[in-house]
From TrEMBL:
This is M48 family metallopeptidase. Belongs to the peptidase M48 family. Coiled coil: none annotated. Binds 1 zinc ion per subunit. InterPro entries: Mito/Outer_Membr_Metalloprot, Peptidase_M48. It comes from the Bacteria. The lineage of its organism: Bacteria, Pseudomonadati, Pseudomonadota, Alphaproteobacteria, Rhodobacterales.
Length: 228
């Protein structure tokens, strides 16, 4: 047991840092957000809520410029001000932003934030244990290799979460009468909207699947549902 004490202490420290980061994010969101009342999006919130047999979906505007959507740990949904500017300039449609909100609802429905907390602890245990073992045989680079392996595992789990949230969003968009076309068209615009072109890390380190793979998965799901 004594041999495991340093590892357990490090994991406890990492968990404390994780909770601190969640607290800090919640505070920032509270300070930099307002309810989403954009007149072109209110009908979308109503349609999504109606499709789930619930009141209109509540969403918020996160007052930052990068184009993004966010599901907070407490279940709140956010679109960034940058995304709304793209709507106002007609670079995206209300239906496309509805698909973003539906995607973030998918993260909430699947409990991805809670699951990532468990994954985070497991990845740090892998990093520390494997780093200790490899460090004996590969001094100086053992911990670096262990970190790369843990990061690859984290990225793979994150990509799985994205596919799950995409599938939830597709089903909700179909039920809301908007179909999967807005989801697909937004993914085709995403690289230009976010300015994420250029060189990228290897695929196994990406936290989000490539847009082409996400589109293919959405189309496959829609075909399966139509055929059933």
């Amino acid at each position: 047991m004594l041999k495991l004490t340093p590892l357990l202490l490090i994991i406890a420290y990492m968990a404390a840092m994780w909770f601190f980061s969640l607290w800090r994010l919640k505070r920032e969101l509270n300070q930099k957000s307002t309810p989403l009342t954009h007149p072109r999006l209110v009908p979308m919130l109503e349609r999504l809520g109606h499709a789930m047999e619930l009141p209109p979906v509540k969403a918020h505007v996160y007052e930052i410029e990068p184009v993004n959507g966010l599901a907070a740990p407490d279940g709140r949904i956010f679109l960034t001000r940058g995304f709304l500017r793209k709507l106002d300039s007609d670079e995206v449609t209300p239906e496309e932003l509805a698909s973003v909100i539906a995607h973030e609802l998918g993260h909430v429905a699947h409990g991805h934030t809670r699951r990532r907390m468990i994954d985070f602890a497991g990845q740090n245990a892998i990093r520390l244990t494997l780093g200790g073992i490899l460090g004996r045989f590969l001094p100086g680079i053992g911990m670096w290799i262990a970190s790369m392996i843990a990061n690859a595992i984290a990225a793979r789990l994150s990509r799985q979460d994205e596919f799950e949230a995409d599938e939830f969003a597709s089903a909700l968009m179909v039920k809301a009468g908007m179909g999967t076309a807005p989801q697909i068209s937004l993914f085709r615009k995403l690289e230009r909207l976010t300015g994420s072109g250029g060189s990228q890390p290897p695929a196994w380190f990406l936290s989000h699947p490539p847009a082409a793979k996400r589109i293919a998965a959405i189309e496959a799901n829609a075909k399966r549902w139509n055929d059933s």
